Amino acid sequence: MAREEGPRESFDELMDTPLDFLAFMMNRLKIDTLTPELLASPTFELMKGTCKSLVELEYFFEEVYKATTDQLDWHNPEGLQYPRDLRKPLPLIPNSRGRQVIPSDHFINNDLAYLFVVSSRTYATSVIKTKAADYGHIKWIKDLVPNTIWSEVPVNYDKHALWGIYHLGRKRQQFYGFAANRESARDVYSKRRIIAVTKLQIVEWHGYKHLDWITICRDDDKLYTFKEGDFKRLRLQDIKDMLILLVQGKITNLNVEDRLAFGVSLRMFTRSIVIQRRVEDLQLGIESYQKKLNITKPDTYRSDLKCRDAYTAYSNPRGFIYQNKDKKNKFMRIDELHKFSDGTLDDVRTALNDRLKGIRMECLPKTIWRQSDRERAKAMIQAIDKQLKSRRIMRSLEKFVGGRPYEGDLRLLQRTI
């Protein structure tokens, strides 16, 4: 490996690539070959004092494991993550029609390619290697996305790649697939917040500890139980609550082995939903520089839009007419909110809320709403709020699995209201 000119500015910069990390450890340990025995003791002692959190330490050891078992992404051996500064706004260039679009080469995330892995053992560290950027509320971003980014039809994923276990052995894959899909017969959904994890019942097989039963306490001081396979039936807020309790050290009532198994199960599930949401949600996909979204373009055209007032309800399919940046009427379906950016959703929500409250503005129509229109507007606002909250929680969950830069300590993360 060629030595780069100039010293590294920080440990994080040194850790930019798995190969640099490997060279760093081998140099400090003064060895030529890294063995599993060395990974289990001296390397751990060397690295645990340099990591800011257990999540960071876990990530580094995953990278070493993949390096020593020939599972790195050798198409990008130097681990180059970003061709540009993520803190700067997305660049825009004119296309053949003279419209401003985002250059396709800035969408570099490998999430979708990772999910398509079926025959190769090339392992793309999609959640961590390509962290998400943070652009705040980008308005009208869907109009800036090149057509090549959209998917013609949604595609199915390789299940093992989606679960984040493609690199595991066949027997362990089979057991995880069996365990992760075992659901309890009871209804586990609740809007009550999780305030404590009281008891775990664990089953171990092929080196994986499955959470057979999890007993938690919600803010009504009642105990609830569910299985690991029920994670997908819980609210995203429940997953975040349990992760916060874990990293803040508030489940000391459990022994160390149980806490470790609980953390592994939670983070494996979190990684899988982060990967999937990035390719199935426009805003999250843009922030993580997606090569191709696994969603079709939003259905914004209707032949009668020109003769309809903006911010009025549309019956079939359900949705509302809104105005884009060019003051042209467009259609927003209530079941396609994930195809619009936060900024666009905020604008539509604000306009609908102003009409509900009777605020008169020049940009809003003067027609009087019927009761049915008011009910549809309330339903649209509620759906938009749910979509925006889901994205806020997903951005928080990405921090727990190293998928989004976070300067502070994970233990200081606040609960989302």
From TrEMBL:
<protein>
    <recommendedName>
        <fullName>F-box domain-containing protein</fullName>
    </recommendedName>
</protein>
